[in-house]
Amino acid sequence: MRTEILTMDVAEVGASAAILDAAERAFRRFDVVYANAGYGMERSVHDTSSDELRAMFETNFFASAELCSDAARRLIAAGRGGHLLMCSSCVSKFTMPAFGAYSASKAAQAHMARAMAFELRPHGIMVSSVHPVTTRTEFFDVVRESLAPNARQQYAIHEMSKFFVQRPEKVARAIARSIGTRRTEIWTSVPTRISAGLITAFPWLLDAAVAFSRRKHAPGSVG
Predict the structure, then answer these.
(1) What is the value of pTM for the model shown?
(2) How many other C-beta atoms lie within 10 A of the C-beta of residue 64?
(3) Cβ distance 48 to 101 under 8 Å?
(4) Is the domain defined by 31-216 classed in CATH 3.40.1190.10?
(5) Longest CA pairwise span in the chain (Å)
(6) How far is residue 60's CA from residue 39's CA, in Å, rounded to a whole number?
């Protein structure tokens, strides 16, 4: 299998065009585009600076939107269909303490992908958002660097997020199986998908879960 590797900051101006230009030079065409770049940060919203919030949205949301929009225009001009995917997250449907900025960027991705799915289907172009749960990659190593010293006890997010853990190969297989289908949302955990639906219908369930986790991990608690 032939690959072409580019090293760049996807948030830079012209990055999306450079990626697609390189693909067309190397392979003469592209049919599937997966916007996967992103990073997380565990920090309360009031402790997140405007610059940090904007930087996260530049990478997680705007770069994905630009890449998929540019790819859509090229596919339409070429008169052929294709499949565009954005890597959102399970937390696009619900959020948790210290994950406000990340969850917001992923929710924005999910809504953008959904709208594009409606808009591009007449052109034969499918659009999907991908919603993984906690995945064993270096993602959480990077997130941990942004964690305030007292945040782990205060929010107990790591304990909550590791309730469902999966290997990256599982995410890759789910994406591969969905290419060319009309699935607008790709979930890699059925229990999490059901939980997200229940939380949307009954928000108090998440309130209760967060309150329980805080009590469980509070200083001096047992168990």
Answers:
(1) 0.84
(2) 30
(3) yes
(4) no
(5) 64
(6) 7
Q: Given the structure tokens 């940090």, which residue do they identify?
A: 52
Distance CA 58, CA 52 (A): 10
Query: Residues 131, 133, 136, 141: is their CA dihedral positive or negative?
Result: positive
In the beta sheet, which residues pair with residue 86? 35, 129
Are 38 and 86 in contact by the 8 Å Cβ rule? The answer is no
pLDDT per residue as tens digits for the range 31-65: 999 999 999 888 899 999 999 999 999 999 999 99
Beta bridge partners of 134: 165
> At how many degrees (to 10) do helices 100-120 and 63-78 cross?
10
Helix (H, G, I), strand (E, B) or coil at 56: helix
pLDDT tens profile 142-187? 555 656 555 555 544 455 455 567 788 888 999 999 999 999 999 9
DSSP state for residue 31 in the 8-state scheme: S
